[in-house]
Design brief:
Elements lengths: L8 H5 L26 E6 L19 E8 L4 E7 L4 E5 L4 E5 L6 E5 L5 E3 L5 E5 L5 E8 L6 E2 L2 H9 L2 E3 L5 E3 L3
Antiparallel strand pairs: 1-2, 2-9, 3-8, 3-10, 4-7, 4-9, 5-6, 5-8, 11-12
Length: 178
């Protein structure tokens, strides 16, 4: 088996992200300034679909997938969005999380508890919210190595702009006035 690779402790250290060393990003996405969508996003493996040019993941090598932890107070989560090329997986670590998909009258919802799992296909509108009674954590896995940006309903884009942020030509967030 000549394909087997051996790695030293030092080599493997670049592939370890200790939670105690991670810092939640309160402004990884333009929507985090909108009331009800405040959350801490911990980029554990890869940058995912970050709209913050300064995102520094705990583990840079994200071959094939990205991992993030989302922490949020009750009644906070993510605004409606879709990934045009990536599957997104949600696994609550603590608390109760509602996962929504579709829009308007077609909207569906499921409430998940710790260690439950849902896989939302590409091109399906989705959002999530902590529906528990205390701060909770959600594990998010996004397929792909070079992730594209997310798409959002115009109402969400308008709310982000009103809250002070928009996306620049490069897909990274800038103050709404620029």
């Amino acid at each position: 088996m000549s394909d087997i690779i051996e790695m030293s402790q030092d080599e493997m250290s670049a592939r370890i992200a200790r939670f105690a060393d991670q810092q939640g990003n309160t402004q990884l996405m333009i929507t985090q300034s909108i009331p009800g969508f405040q959350r801490d996003i911990y980029s554990v493996i890869g940058k995912g679909v970050s709209e913050d040019a300064g995102t520094q993941p705990g583990i840079v090598d994200s071959s094939g997938f990205n991992v993030a932890y989302v922490g949020a107070e009750p009644d906070n989560g993510s605004a409606m969005h879709t990934h045009n090329e990536e599957v997104e997986v949600f696994i609550p670590i603590s608390g109760q999380w509602a996962i929504y998909w579709n829009e308007g009258d077609a909207m569906e919802e499921v409430v998940l508890g710790p260690m439950d799992c849902i896989s939302v296909p590409e091109k399906v509108m989705r959002s999530f919210k902590n529906v528990g009674d205390s701060y909770g954590y959600l594990l998010v896995i996004i397929g792909g190595t070079e992730n594209s940006t997310v798409s959002r309903p115009q109402s969400v884009i308008d709310a982000a702009t009103a809250a002070g942020l928009r996306l620049g030509a490069d897909g990274k967030m800038v103050p709404a006035g620029e």
